[in-house]
Amino acid sequence: MASLSAARWLLLLTALVAWVDCGPRYTPDWASLDARPLPGWFDEAKVGVFVHWGVFAVPAWGSEWFWWHWQGERRPEYELFMREHFPPDTTYADFAARFTAHDFAPRFWAWLFQRAGARYVVLTTKHHEGFTNWGSPVSWNWNSVDTGPHRDLVGELGQALRERNIRYGLYHSLLEWFNPLYLADKQNGFKTQNFVFSKTMPELYDLVLRYKPDLIWSDGDWEGPDTYWNSTSFLAWLYNDSPVKDTVVVNDRWCNNCSCHHGGYYNCADKYKPGTLPQHKWEMCTSIDKRSWGYRSNMQLSELMDESSIIADLVHTVSFGGNYLLNVGPTKEGVIVPIFQERLLSLGKWLDVNGEAIYASKPWRVQMENTTNSVWYTSKGSTVYVIFMTWPDSGVLKLSSPLPSPNTQVTMLGFSGMLKWEKAPEKGLLITLPNVAPSVFPVQRCWTLKLNGVE
Questions:
Q1: Using one digit for the tens of pLDDT, what is the confidence trace for 380-432?
Q2: How far apart are CA 142 and CA 26, in angstroms?
Q3: What would the mean pLDDT of 208-231 be, rounded to a whole number?
Q4: Which stretches within 36-195 are classed as H helix?
């Protein structure tokens, strides 16, 4: 009897542990979904690389919205481009065969993104053109397995990234500009959902079950309500029952009027840059090519972000508690052009020295010095990091926000030894920087001081 009783208690204890482990159940409404805690890895990651890649890389002109500008809006410059570069009967579908990806080297991409300092990567699985970069069973041959590369681009990159322990995010557009089913639903005032249940939702479930992403970067949401997209039901399944329910992160583009209001973290808008500290976790997405997210063969050097502006954007973003997602657009062959590689590697070199002030950091009580853009703060526990953009001519950096104590110590990342400091006449610190030219440091711009023992 004693052994039977023990067995019954063991069963009861096992059931209790299973019940505790199952966690909360989320219902398909925003009040419940928005209450889900954001998995901690995302806030700690801080830096990601965005990859916009699709059939739009074949014309490689204007932007990734080429098809819409050409045959949706019918902009004359796009029609002229087509007349000058392609036969008169060319359709957008004809571009798919030229989307070869024959130089796509996923392990090199993964190495490059790791050297750039990225802790996560987001790949376009399907843009608004509808072409999928994996063998979607509902893509009707408009995908990278049945035409063009004849390769599972999503799967190959995911495998290479995970070999380097880089988190994998999947961008997916809810809408497709010219899909007849979507156009019919739109014509019906989004009262019918034929496109959603035969195309969008099957794709999202397939992506999750097949690739188990760490992040879903939704887009193409702006025309229909959540009742059309069925997005809250999908997210409830994602959080409750999917194979990534405990780790997956999502953004805020799941329906019209959703951005900056609902979702896991907020994008709010492309290249969003708040002026004050947001109360919700957010991400700034931007592109090295300031005029396009996809590759353009006609881009000019003056249209690209330089190293200084990339680092300044990153520091601004992280000081305000955000993540920084920097985009590149590969060619139709799968090449990340050298100028993009150079920008990514420059960012990585800066992070090699200053990453301590970026990764897993938190906003400090003051985000910028005297509301300027030249001195920014981050923190880890009681440690405060000061990132300054301009080396003062006097060699002395004045900070009014940190309050020194007898135990205050000041060091510089990438430089050995303590720095001298004294109390400022009013308040704050006067820090004497190393008496050497800034050019001798491992990085030549945007330096970081580490303050311990400040109040």
A1: 999 999 999 999 989 999 999 999 999 999 999 999 999 999 999 989 999 99
A2: 35
A3: 97
A4: 40-45, 66-67, 76-85, 106-115, 153-163, 180-187, 194-195
Distance, CA of 61 to CA of 82 (rounded, Å): 10
Among 361, 280, 253, 265, smallest CA distance to 314 is for 361
Report the alpha-carbon distance of residue 145 to residue 149 in Å, rounded. 7
Please say whether the beta carbons of 390 and 374 come within 8 A.
Answer: yes
How far is residue 310's CA from residue 444's CA, in Å, rounded to a whole number? Answer: 14
What class is the 30-357 domain? alpha beta
Strands 396-399 and 429-432, bridge-based pairing: antiparallel
Q: Please state, in angstroms and rounded to a whole number, the distance separating the CA atoms of residues 182 and 175.
A: 7
**291-304 pLDDT tens trace:** 999 999 999 999 99
- First-to-final CA distance of the chain: 64
SS3 content of the chain, % helix, strand, coil (to 5): 35, 20, 45
Q: Return the exposure string of 168-179: e unless at least 16 CB atoms fall within 10 Å of the residue's CB, then b.
A: bbbbbbbbbbeb
What token pair was written down for 295? 């590759």
For residues 316 and 368, give the distance between their C-alpha atoms in angstroms, rounded to a whole number.
Answer: 9
Check whether domain 369-452 has CATH 3.40.109.10, yes or no: no
DSSP string, 225-253: -HHHHTHHHHHHHHHHTSTTTTT-EE-S-
Of 105, 151, 118, nearest in space to 351 by CA = 118
- Domain boundaries along the sequence of the chain: 30-357, 369-452
Report the alpha-carbon distance of residue 18 to residue 6 in Å, rounded.
18
Q: Do domains 30-357 and 369-452 have the same CATH topology?
A: no
pTM metric for this prediction: 0.93
Residue 77 class from Cβ within 10 Å (0-12 exposed, 13-18 middle, 19+ buried)? exposed
Query: What would the mean pLDDT of 272-283 be, rounded to a whole number?
Result: 95
Tell me the H-state helices in 368-427.
none
Note the pLDDT tens digit of each residue in 121-170: 999 999 999 999 999 999 989 999 999 999 999 999 999 999 999 999 99
